[in-house]
Design a protein that fits this description.
About 45% of the residues lie in helices and about 15% in strands. Helix 1 links the parallel strand 1 and strand 2 (about 35-40). The protein has about 260 residues and is of the alpha/beta class. The chain has helices at about 20-30, 40-55, 70-80, 105-135, 150, 160-180, 200, 205-215, 225-235; strands spanning about 10, 35-40, 60-65, 90, 140-145, 185-190, 195, 220, 245-250. The chain has a single domain (about 10-250), classed as Rossmann fold (3-Layer(aba) Sandwich), CATH 3.40.50. Helix 1 (about 20-30) packs parallel to helix 2 (about 40-55), helix 1 crosses helix 9 and helix 3 (about 70-80) runs parallel beside helix 4 (about 105-135). The radius of gyration is 17 Å and the shape is globular. The longest helix is centred in the middle third of the chain and has 27 residues, at about 105-135. The structure holds nicotinamide-adenine-dinucleotide. The site of nicotinamide-adenine-dinucleotide (NAD) has 27 residues, from helix 1 and helix 7.
């Protein structure tokens, strides 16, 4: 078994389901201690914690809305009292709350998507920095979960979500520039069509049918396939990967 994250202290936002949950489990398997942040699904977060502990990891759940700076500050206080510092931050929480086209949208719709998918990355990162800077590790890492939507403009009724994810891609590069001096690598993953609760909430419809048309591998991906890449990026195996994006999309077809 690879234990390439042995001893690392990691925070994963939105980790009660989907890619975040799979990342917490992958990290635990590789020896990391994990904070499983969730907003509403306490029971699911506790199931992830249980699995992580069964793998021998130190794991805790903490409820915080990543769009609320006061709740983020409480999350950081909890991490400070539990671990004292952080080595890895995975900004994963996000989603497409409702599909609307520009013509039927309003400012509130736009703001909700920018807040959840982009402002949250800024807020959680800013508040995590004191803990990342306290890490004794020679390598600290931030992995931002963006989306292929940043590149494609998003599917039907996803203009605000796609714009926010484009912002995450740019913010990744801007953060990398500022934080390299503190030995913090910053990278983004760009998932394609991944089977998670995301698509139930976003009412994507026939995910596999869509994948058949759009993806070279002719299938949707799994949360575990994205989590593997995040675990690699967080590890010292990726020590020279910085200020860039990795697409985990099975080969998206543009032709
Ligand atoms: P998911 O819905 O299972 O995961 C999103 C998680 O974020 C959920 O656990 C949710 O409770 C949490 N969350 C939502 N709002 C929150 C808030 N305000 N505070 C804290 N947590 C909050 O879906 P997923 O596919 O695992 O999504 C994870 C990330 O991957 C998201 O950022 C999503 O945009 C991105 N992504 C997903 C796909 C896909 O096809 N599934 C594709 C590209 C990008």
């Amino acid at each position: 078994m690879n234990r390439e994250l042995n001893g690392k202290k990691a925070l994963i936002t939105g980790a009660s389901t989907g890619i975040g949950a799979a990342t917490a489990i992958a990290f635990a398997r590789e020896g990391a201690s994990v904070i499983i942040n969730y907003r509403s699904s306490e029971q699911k977060a506790r199931e992830v914690m249980k699995k992580a502990r069964e793998l021998g990891a130190e794991a805790y759940v903490f409820k915080a809305d990543v769009t609320n700076e006061a709740e983020i500050a409480d999350l950081m206080k909890f991490i400070e009292s539990t671990f004292g510092y952080l080595d890895v931050l995975v900004n994963n929480a996000g989603g497409l709350l409702e599909r609307r086209e520009i013509t039927s949208s309003d400012l509130e719709y736009w703001r909700r998507h920018i807040d959840l998918n982009l402002t949250s990355v800024y807020l959680v990162t800013k508040n995590s920095l004191p803990l990342l800077l306290r890490s004794p590790s020679k390598e600290r890492v931030i992995v931002n979960v963006s989306s292929i939507a940043a590149f494609t403009g998003g599917g039907r009724g996803a203009f605000a979500y796609a714009s926010a994810k484009g912002g995450v891609k740019t913010l990744t590069r801007a953060m990398a520039k500022e934080l390299a001096q503190h030995r913090i690598r910053v990278v983004a993953v760009m998932p394609g069509l991944i089977v998670t609760p995301f698509h139930e909430k976003a009412k994507t419809g026939d995910v596999e049918g869509w994948a058949e048309k759009q993806v070279l591998l002719k299938r949707a991906g799994s949360a575990e396939e994205v989590a593997e890449v995040i675990a690699f990026l967080a590890s010292e195996r990726a020590s020279y990967v910085n200020s860039t994006e990795i697409y985990v999309d099975g080969g998206w077809m543009y032709g």
